[in-house]
Amino acid sequence: MNRSILLVLGVVLLAVGLGVSYAEWASGSQPWGQLLGDNFLFARSLPFTIGFGIVFGFWRASGWRWSRVEARAGSIRRFAPSTVVLHALAGVAVVALIATGGWQYLKGLLDAESPIYMATVYRIHYVAASLLIFVSVAFLSDWLLRGERSLTLGKGQGIRGLRGLAHELPKPLGTTLAYLLGLDLRRAAPPTEEFTYYERAVSFPTWELTLGLIILTGAIKAVRYIYPIPGDVLYWVSAVHVGAGVLLGLKLLDHLRYVLAPSRWPLMVAMATGWVPESYVKRFHAGWFAQLSSSQATAGAAAASPAASTPSPVVGSAGSGS
Prior knowledge:
mainly alpha; two-stranded parallel ribbon
């Protein structure tokens, strides 16, 4: 009940913050047009958006259940329902940001009139940015509170992870990486855990870098009408923001290339449903399957004990139990 009350309070505070900012924007006390007004509203709402993301992350983390694997009809839950929803929201936000940001950049580059009202393009950009900030903060808060490390190589596992990455990469790339780092590819590849070594060593870190740059530089640009920012600083912040936008587009293409590969299609389906076939996990994620089997055996032994309490189901470590 306490976590639900906290979530409701977060929603109320977000609504109040947005309402106050909107009321000031709509009052006509400032001679602003749509573009400047939207920028002001976005900047003023940032603390409330971030705060709501932290509250939602706490709500997810406090609902995490540790005991046994949730499985049904030959499938294993990989992601919680809230993880599926947040990932979908992030995907929509990223696509909208790339489209609207690219439109703004091309208009300035080509010095041409836009067939779409630019203030509307910026409005969509601000809404998508708010959505991405909320999702990013929610995930980050959840992972920090739970000590989640499944999307990283883990402390002291760097060499092992890089060896796994070298085995996963196409042979020319893997061989080159092994040669440069002195890795022995004659050794068997370490078993793949919940996420592949490419996801943990390459994909997720580049997502962190790209989204971090986009959010940080975008927030600085947005608050320039509220807090004075030197012109030289704003110039370089804008340049980094554009570069990060290009990197974000490339990262999205790489992500689609990876998850839409036929051999990984079940993982794509899992991102939409939360479930992955047990046979697929057993074949391609042997390390994760071993962990799940061990957890299930431990939970079964505890359930057989008269003094043990009934365990609650859990999901894959990347998503919380809510």
